[in-house]
Amino acid sequence: DGFSAKRLFTQGFSYTYDDLIFLPGYIDFAADEVNLTTKLTRNIELSIPCVASPMDTVTESSMAVAMAALGGIGIVHYNNKAEEQASIIRNAKSRRIPLITDPIFISPTDTIDSVDDFYCSPYVFVTESGNSNSKLLGAVGVSEWERLLDKTTVVCEYMSESRITAPSSYTFEQAASALVAKKLDYLPLVSEEDGHVVDLFTTADYERIRNAPELGLPSLGADGEFMVGAAMGTREDDKRRLEHLVKAGANVVVLDSSQGHSIYQLEMIKYMKRTYPEVDVIAGNVVTMNQARALIEAGADGLRVGMGSGSICTTQEVCAVGRGQAIAVYKVSSVAAQSGVPVIADGGIGNSGHIVKGLALGASTVMMGSFLAGSNEAPGRYVSQGGICVKKYRGMGSLEAMTKESAARYLGEKAKIKVAQGVEGSVADKGSVLKYIPYSMQAVKQGFQDLGATSIQSAHNLLRSGALRLETRTAAAQREGGVHDLVSYKK
Ligand code: XMP
């Protein structure tokens, strides 16, 4: 019944996830017994198969920490100076709790002219020099500032004096009990070395983390800190960036290109393996077996698959090159598996079914952009649009993003005219990834149970042996597979 993957994918069609459906297998285990432990690269294990994409509207320190706390990993984008990227990585690695508000600092003689000076944080901290490198004197809350009649008053006249703090090495339980026991609405977390504020723990963090379903094993490096990845390009000056990333403690580096089969990338992989053999390299992006073979031969420890499948991508329309994501994942994985190189299915994840499909077709992890954008942990602020709360999400090849460093991913070394390969948009507020990633992982476990696969590896074995059967879906079958014939419904 149905087709084996080998047969289905030799018919000349560029299939993507929605074109396909798996036929059910045999269940003799509970969904909770499904093991989603997996490999990101040859040497890095994760307890859930989720990777946050290196995009400037998806992964900075808060996302990286949340993903690592969940057992996945975030790859910090490089649409910034090398020093800035390194500082985001250091910040993420120094955190012990998945917090989301970067502390804002001001000096005692400053005034707060507008609510924008709070940068969405509920408090600003007053320090001697107005930055994070000096003694904490006090704090001003948004509500205190709002009550202030004369906004030209300098902050030292109405700030609340410096108060209870906790060490930044505190676990969530320790920080939470200090917050609750002392009935605080926020707790500055300070460095044990110099007493400087490094983080802000608020009642909102307490609620967000306490209400999250139980998390799996966090992703920790050999240093005991959260694992954090970083992306970079393949230009000569990226070697300097690489040095910063390695010094900042990046656990894995992703060579970020929309078409990875290039002399620039092959040479960069070799350089990295020669210079920093201890850091795993993820190469890509690739969609064909030929591309995959070349990057593996050069020394890649992981491969990132996808070209034009992302929700904000226009590469296939602009350049007429790419591949349907389902066949790309299958073909690349079949080559990579022979060398023990794990594959990341990058882009096109819109629901948990797509995650099941990417993994069952041979990937070991999925990389997500839009699925994580719009969450509390994504960079940027919420704004109201047409009555709903949204956050910005944009392609790294969009004109807006390419005004910074990311142009290298989509342009030649010396291109003079910028051609966009992505769009700028917005996505609805999704709440915290600490809540919906565990929910999605439970759905993925149920999908694996339906397939009769107890783990990602067992799904791969079923796929390769031909025991996993699948078919294409007609347009009518796709319609039938979604919600239909209702006047209205609730999700
Ligand atoms: P999703 O579907 O998760 O896709 O939103 C995220 C992935 O899309 C890729 N990406 C782009 N591709 N133009 C492209 O053609 C772009 O501007 C762009 N920005 C991101 C990238 O692989 C990401 O992980």
UniProtKB/TrEMBL annotation:
- Where does this protein hold IMP? 311, 346-348, 369-370, 393-397, 421
List the cofactors: K(+)
> Which residues does K(+) bind?
308, 310, 313
In terms of superkingdom, the source organism counts as Eukaryota
Cellular compartments per GO CC = cytoplasm
Enzyme Commission number(s) from the entry: 1.1.1.205
Q: Which reaction does it catalyse?
A: IMP + NAD(+) + H2O = XMP + NADH + H(+)
Q: Which GO terms describe its molecular function?
A: IMP dehydrogenase activity; metal ion binding; nucleotide binding
Described by its record, this protein's role is as follows: Catalyzes the conversion of inosine 5'-phosphate (IMP) to xanthosine 5'-phosphate (XMP), the first committed and rate-limiting step in the de novo synthesis of guanine nucleotides, and therefore plays an important role in the regulation of cell growth.
- By what name is this protein known? Inosine-5'-monophosphate dehydrogenase
